[in-house]
Amino acid sequence: MQSTPESRRDVFRRIAQRPHANWPVYDATPLYERDSPDGLASDIRTVSQAWFKHDAHDSVEEFAYALPLAYFRLDAHDRYARSTRYEMDTLFRMFVLKELHGWEHETALLEYLESHPELCERLGLDRVPDQSTLWRSWHMRFTDDLRKTAQKAARTILIKAQNAGVTVPREPEQSLPRRDDDTDESDPDNELILDKAGTITNHVSRFVFPAFSLNRGEGCEIHENAFWGLQTYLGLRENLAANEGARSFVHETTRERTPLGHAHRDHIRELSIEQIREMYRQAVQQLLDEIAETAEFFRAGIVAIDITEANPFTGNRAGHEEEIIGTKENSDEYAYQWATVQLVGNAVPLVLDARPVQKGESRKEIVEDLLDSAEDLVHVDNVLMDREFDSQHVLEMISQRGLSYVVPKRMQTSERAQAKRLLQRDQDRYETDRKLHLGKNEWHETTLIYRRREDSEHDDHRQYSVFMTNCGSGHLTEYGYRWEIESGYKSIKRFMAATTSKDFGLRFFYFAFACLLYSIWRAVDLLVQVELTGEYEHSPIVTADNTLTLLKKETGIG
Question: Which residues form the Transposase IS4-like domain (predicted)?
């Protein structure tokens, strides 16, 4: 079906309404010039994702004619100085069409165009070019970068179309193209892993870091990447604060000018919590756009929401009681608390969003906020949470969204009595429906599942755990995926810079940036695994330290 002005308008309106869409990227981020092939690839990815969700768009060929080329300077990739019969945009669309079908030679493309005159008209061709003209255009007129962009664009279009249920002329490759076609390693060695990781880290960091901005204005002598370089450097060293880190950074960086520790902190303090969160979400969107073209990503659907806390605060918290709140344990200690929503299960474990927790906020507010972010970024099916979120109002809100949940329940009198009866019967599992009162004669219907822990240290009713779910007992096994959050938090806290400052924004920025470094690591590991083995296993083959070391090179440390 051919697109119409109305259908195209609907697509671009949808893109404009997406909270994390950067289109066209040349105006939206400082990363790309208008002749950047990576910028063109990003635009094609953004538009194709929305294009094939429209009911009127059911043809990949149609999209080849609608490629968003208006903002891209194709002439910068034209090696011919003389005037030619065929324009670069027409040739680029033709070669994308060739790549969509997977034709190895120009002859197949020519035969196809000759037998479909309406397609030639759409391309603006009054005459189909001969085979030699096409061969020269591809091999001699196009730059290497433009050829690679055409191939990447075709693969992106095929994947986005296939995901939307549109018929495609061929199956897209689900792994990144190899740089070395002779590589056939079922168990890649460390040198090969590091080589691939270095290439991919370079690629990923060029997309992600521009999402962060200090809004310092023009004419600054110190490049903004130097600030992110210093922040990454602080993540490389345990318990390293900004002042000490800035002094060491001077000796390890290749940059001529670097920020002082107090200047670094001052700029970050000027960022609001919402600015930090928005920049974080944009950076994660860039990561997701990269890994979304692997088959492994599309197994996403389970998210876990949890709250972690910083080390107990031992100073004077006067004036900061709303921010330095009690710990989750029943104690007299205080700590900063941060909430996150993460992908878990078979998907790559990325932190989709993070937010601070302040005194007086309800668990429902926190969960609703994080789910809003998660559902803007990925498709969510199931929500896993800890027992501190076992409020009936939280569960009702999740159900109203059409999502399923699994949450452990704190044992009250009735649950303890039931667990004791199960123990007497030597029964390992029990399931029952329960209505939870919402107020005003409204109820939330859920299912309670009692399960005996095989390795319990107790010999009484405490052997049993109680879970609440609205999706049946079959989903209970998924709750085991929550352990990924706890192991993830350990790595995230390892990436955090040290500070004694009480500034809430600075504290949150350090946590959010550590979440970003963690997410970059896991995304790089997925892409390396897929490229080297064609598969993805949860156990990383790229270490966190290796990723940070590679990142520091991209931000100017060495």
Answer: 350-500
End-to-end CA separation in angstroms for the chain? 53
Full 3-state SS string of 292-327: CCCHHHHHCCEEEEEEEECCCECCCCCCCCCCCEEC
**Of 125, 149, 164, which residue is a domain's last?**
164
The amino acid occupying position 233 is Y
pLDDT in tens, 412-453: 999 999 999 999 999 988 999 999 999 888 999 999 999 888
Residues of the domain holding 396? 287-497
Same-domain pairing of 216 and 257: yes
In this structure, the answer to whether residues 394 and 420 fall within a common structural domain is yes
Could you tell me if 419 and 457 lie in one domain? yes
**How many Cα atoms within 13 Å fall on the side-chain side of residue 411?**
15
Whether 363 has a pLDDT exceeding 90, the answer reads yes
Q: Give the 3-state secondary structure of residue 402.
A: coil
- Could you give the CA distance from residue 34 to residue 76 in angstroms, rounded to a whole number? 9
CA distances to 67, 91, 129, 137 from 84, in Å: 22, 11, 12, 10
CA distances from 169 to 30, 98, 101, 192, 254 (A): 36, 11, 6, 34, 48
The amino acid present at 405, given as its one-letter code, is Y
Same domain for 536 and 439? no
Q: What per-residue confidence (pLDDT) applies to 228?
A: 60
Quick one: 13 and 150 in the same domain? yes
**Would you say the pTM of this structure is higher than 0.90?**
no
Task: Please give the Cα distance from 131 to 136 (Å, whole number).
Answer: 9
Same domain as 143, residue 117: yes
- Number of compact structural domains in the chain: 3
- The enclosing H or E element of 519 equals helix 504-533
Q: Say how many C-beta atoms besides its own lie within 10 A of residue 102's C-beta.
A: 14
Whole-angstrom Cα distance, residue 435 to residue 267? 51
Phi, psi of 179 (to 5 degrees): -80, -25
At position 414, the amino acid (one-letter code) is S
One DSSP character per residue, 420-446 reads HHHHHHT-SEEEEEEEEEEETTEEEEE
Write out the E strands in 18-145.
none
Condensed to tens digits (0 to 9), the pLDDT of residues 163-202 reads 788 888 888 764 443 333 333 444 456 667 777 777 777 6
Token pair belonging to 262: 């107090």
CATH number of the CATH domain containing 391: 3.90.350.10
Contact 38, 32 (CB under 8 A): yes
3-class DSSP state of 40: helix
Q: Residue 404 belongs to what H/E stretch? A: strand 404-408
**51 and 158 co-located in one domain:** yes
